[in-house]
Design goal:
Blueprint lengths: L2 H23 L7 H10 L21 H10 L5 H4 L1 H14 L2 H13 L4 E4 L15 E5 L2 E8 L10 E7 L10 E7 L5 E6 L8 E12 L3 E2 L5 H17 L9 H11 L7 H29 L6 H24 L24 H8 L9 H12 L21
Parallel strand pairs: 1-4
Antiparallel strand pairs: 2-3, 3-7, 4-5, 5-8, 6-7
Bound molecules: flavin-adenine dinucleotide.
The site of flavin-adenine dinucleotide has 21 residues, from strand 1 and helix 12.
């Protein structure tokens, strides 16, 4: 056994022993979820690759899978499900960019779900071109004064904290003038208004900042680091959305196969069978691509597969649910209620195939559109000529905008 293999095996034994201890002392079925998650965090089993004392053990991220699988099998709570933007994106960003003080303050309650987080990046005039955003912050003593509007902010209505990126210097090129902050979503000067989706629910919101004061101690990274901070968030978002490797034949494709199996024989046409088979094959190709991407990431070489996985899973989900609704025939048009609700969880509370079809329409927009993923692949993988960028070397204040 090499030194590296020896270390990996010792780390694995340590993780297994800590999970044993957690499950024995706090049986998940009889322990209050927040208590359980707090104990999981304190044992370094929240994000095992984070530093010790901050929810991790400083070991390989791949060992997290052992933790998650064993806790799920024992019926334990899931931190991602309770606080998806926080666990999947904001936590990893605080871990990379936060001071020790910030990590101590924010990571534990984020993990236990006591404090929900949201991501305040997109604006009405800047979604794909997020670096062109216009919300401003001006330094005022030991505070920053923020004015502007964000949009599509998932779970802002239940959030305690938001990861906010705003412009702090308008006289430099757009990427260089941004700064990231942690903002109190329940503080003065923050107004959250629901935005209703095609499903009838309002998972996301508009957020208005009017003379909002943020202490300088809530700055993440240095002034001007906002773009680099957001790249950490977006990298985690892409993996969090498109990179999961589910078992063969599971996820949306399993829903399609179930609908197919339950169809009466006279409706199982050869043409429909071929469409279902093609979708199943695409799902399997995506699964194998994500496995390859995970292996590359473990070698420290993230590669282009993150963007491939994001684009491919979005288009596949949409096509799979299209076919589900096709096969359901007239039943595909039946939908419970369009009463507006503001769910506490992404995806809402009611689950149905019809709703999954409607919700899947957002997959090719959220977390970066499919067109933008294709631009990334075209430029970085295929070496095609770059997108037209008229604002690259121009100070943000001089870029024409509407
Ligand atoms: C369900 C959902 C949840 C979301 N949650 C959040 C959240 O929590 N926080 C947050 O900050 N944002 C969130 N978003 C916003 C999301 O990140 C943006 O919608 C996305 O980045 C696209 O931006 P946009 O809507 O402004 O579209 P635009 O950027 O205006 O794009 C409009 C169209 O033009 C195309 N396009 C744009 N630029 C190019 C280009 N260079 N080349 C080719 N085509 C191009 C796009 O593909 C798209 O089809 C969410 C969105 C959805 C749908």
């Amino acid at each position: 056994m090499t030194l590296t293999e020896n270390r990996a095996s010792t780390d694995e034994q340590r993780v297994e022993a800590l999970v044993d201890d957690l499950l024995t002392q706090f049986p998940p079925r009889t322990t209050e979820p927040r208590t359980f998650l707090g104990e999981q965090y304190d044992r370094g089993l929240a994000w095992v690759h984070f530093d010790e004392g901050h929810g991790g053990l400083g070991v390989s991220a791949k060992l997290q899978r052992i933790v998650n699988e064993r806790i799920a099998a024992a019926g334990g709570p899931n931190a991602y499900y309770r606080n998806p933007i926080g666990y999947g994106m904001c936590g990893p960003t605080v871990a990379v960019w936060g001071t020790d003080e910030q990590k101590r303050r924010y990571l534990r309650p984020l993990f236990t779900g006591e404090e929900i987080w949201c991501q305040l990046f997109s604006e009405p005039g800047s979604g794909s071109d997020f670096a062109g955003l216009s919300s401003r912050a001006i330094k005022d003593g030991e505070e920053w004064l923020v004015n502007g509007q964000k949009v599509w902010t998932t779970l802002a209505h239940v959030s305690k904290w938001g990861l906010l990126v705003v412009r702090t210097d308008a006289e430099t090129v757009k990427h260089a003038g941004l700064t990231a902050f942690i903002v109190d979503m329940q503080g003065p000067g923050v107004e959250v208004k629901p935005l209703r989706q095609i499903t009838g629910e309002a998972e996301f919101n508009e957020v208005f900042f009017t003379n909002t004061r943020i202490p300088d101690a809530n700055r993440l990274g240095q002034p001007g680091d906002g773009w680099r901070v957001s790249l950490t968030t977006l990298m985690n978002e892409r993996v969090s959305i498109g990179g999961a490797v589910a078992p063969k034949g599971s996820g949306p494709i399993a829903a399609l196969i179930k609908v197919w199996e339950e169809l009466p024989p006279e409706r199982k046409s050869a043409a429909a069978r071929e469409r279902v088979t093609q979708l199943w094959s695409r799902a399997e190709v995506l699964r194998l691509t994500n496995l390859r991407a995970n292996a590359a990431r473990k070698r420290g070489d993230p590669g282009p597969e993150g963007s491939i996985g994001k684009a491919a899973s979005a288009e596949l989900n949409k096509d799979v649910y299209d076919e589900v609704v096709n096969l359901l025939g007239a039943d595909g048009m039946l939908y419970g209620s369009y009463d507006m609700i503001r769910p506490e969880l992404v995806g809402g509370t009611e689950v149905s195939l019809q709703k999954a079809f409607l919700r899947s329409r957002a997959n090719s927009i959220e977390g970066g559109t499919t067109e933008v993923m294709r631009n990334i692949l075209g430029e970085r993988v295929l070496g095609l000529p770059g997108d037209v960028r008229v604002d690259r070397d121009v100070p943000w204040s001089q870029v024409p905008r509407n």
